Amino acid sequence: MRAQAPERAEALQKGLVDIGQASAASGVSAKMIRHYEEIGLLPVVPRTAANYRLYAPQHVQTLRFIHRARALGFSMDEIRALLGLWQNRRRPSAAVRKIAQAHIEDLQQRIAQMQGMVDTLGHLVHCCHGDERPDCPILVDLAGED
Amino acid sequence: MRAQAPERAEALQKGLVDIGQASAASGVSAKMIRHYEEIGLLPVVPRTAANYRLYAPQHVQTLRFIHRARALGFSMDEIRALLGLWQNRRRPSAAVRKIAQAHIEDLQQRIAQMQGMVDTLGHLVHCCHGDERPDCPILVDLAGED
DNA sequence: GCTTGACCTTGCCATTGTGGGAAGCTTCAG
DNA sequence: CTGAAGCTTCCCACAATGGCAAGGTCAAGC
């Protein structure tokens, strides 16, 4: 990993970093940073004469925001909305809360669905003796009712 | 929905059905039936002279198996393995159980991850007053630590 | 016999979010 | 100068599903 090279291009001295450093500082892969730019989550950043992207601290901050939001399971569209609110000083906190609340409910729904699967499978696994004999209630269930 | 048309083609009298009927009888969309054939989950079935796929009851049974397994969250690869065991009369039930057990653990891991998100978000939502004021602990969290 | 509508066929594109890799240029260090 | 590492763009892939379009087919009604 190359350490900070202040002579990188004339602009690096102004606190701007290249995509690799922005990636390391934010936890977002360079691949994803480019992708976020492409889909409009990130602004189009300036480039060096050699066409390298240059990121200001503010951009790195945005990347961290996205990274954290992804870790909480927000979708791209939700993150887009959250970023808009974050950057709007006159936002109503109710709008943020509404997005988060809806996301919680979405997560809970998915959890309930998966928990249902776990319950069903747990029962079947419990009933399956699991030895070298071929009869198996799991297969019976899969083949049978539907 | 077309009712059973036994005179469909000369072969339909042998209990063979077209893809629409196989779909209705199994709960798997025609689109997905073709896809499963393409990826090798289903055998390549015979066709009529007009190139229509013909499904025997055995194939419909397999489709129901897949449908049920999908409903329990098994991946295509897991279903492929389960189908192989199902069709093998000398299978050890332990092999089936192992797949199901691994799938349960996978589900539980994902549930735990999502539950962690719910917990974090629940706390943040609880702390957000959710009115017209702009200050919001949810955004502070997203922007801040990472 | 011909039309009509419902069905079948293939093929291509979109999704969500991420990774891999190729081909080519840039930068830096030795 | 050369090599390694990093940047650029572009294309492909995943898993599983849906949608649409263009064309063939079949059964039923007139």
TrEMBL record, chains A, B:
CDD domains for the chain: HTH_CueR
Subcellular location: Cytoplasm
Keywords: Cytoplasm, DNA-binding, Transcription, Transcription regulation
Main location class: cytoplasm
InterPro entries according to UniProt: CueR (IPR011789), DNA-bd_dom_put_sf (IPR009061), MerR-type_HTH_dom (IPR000551), MerR_fam (IPR047057), Tscrpt_reg_MerR_DNA-bd (IPR015358)
Short name of one Pfam family: MerR
Entry-linked Gene3D superfamilies: 1.10.1660.10
Domain of life: Bacteria
Coiled coil: none
Cited SUPFAM superfamilies: Putative DNA-binding domain
Identification of the protein by name: Cu(I)-responsive transcriptional regulator
Native species: Viridibacterium curvum
